Amino acid sequence: MDSRKWIERFAAVIDERGAELTELDRRAGDGDFGTNLRSALGRVRANLAADDPSTPDEVFTAVSTAFLNTGGTSGPLFGMWFREFAKGLGDEVSIRSLAAAAGEAEAVVRRLGGAEVGHKTMVDAMVPAAEALAAAASRGADVETALKEAAAAADAGARSTAELLAKRGRASYVGEHARGVVDPGALTVAWFFEAATAA
Ligand code: ADP
Ligand code: MG
Ligand code: MG
Question: What is this structure's pTM?
């Protein structure tokens, strides 16, 4: 797994489909999510160009820093999420380090944001993805297989948010109006893992 290709693919997907995220946040929030994400990924690209990182820890540090400097609720939460990947992955992506990092990362986001599974946030995709990676690691699957399973689990988790009533974030202010709307943060997490399988 080439983590730089992974992030470049993720940035390309956000370029292509960022408007869908904005539309979801418009229906269930304040409509700035796609803009926040695109500006974070602009900073990611600038960091990659400036530092030219190659190892996963350096690549994910560049990603984390970019998100931590981005506005909105999602910026700092994604920043802290990616920081755990930077801390855990070292200089090569292994299934064990990936599973451990994803577990630490979802725990950090839950702690900071106070959201649990079922609250209609990014956590609804982060937790099942981490669980899929842990299950793959415990049976000794390879990284590619594990990431495919994580992507499928994150996608199912993101889709499940449509029927939920939000308990955290701006979508919780609009109550029933957000029913039927997929949480854009959760969808982004699904796209992140899908980008790995395409990289
Ligand atoms: P804002 O609501 O400040 O405009 P963004 O539009 O940048 O924030 O991000 C919205 C996303 O942030 C939501 O789709 C959701 O996934 C996530 N989110 C919001 N609040 C929380 C929280 N408390 N914990 C985890 N994720 C959250
Ligand atoms: Mg918003
Ligand atoms: Mg906002």
Answer: 0.98
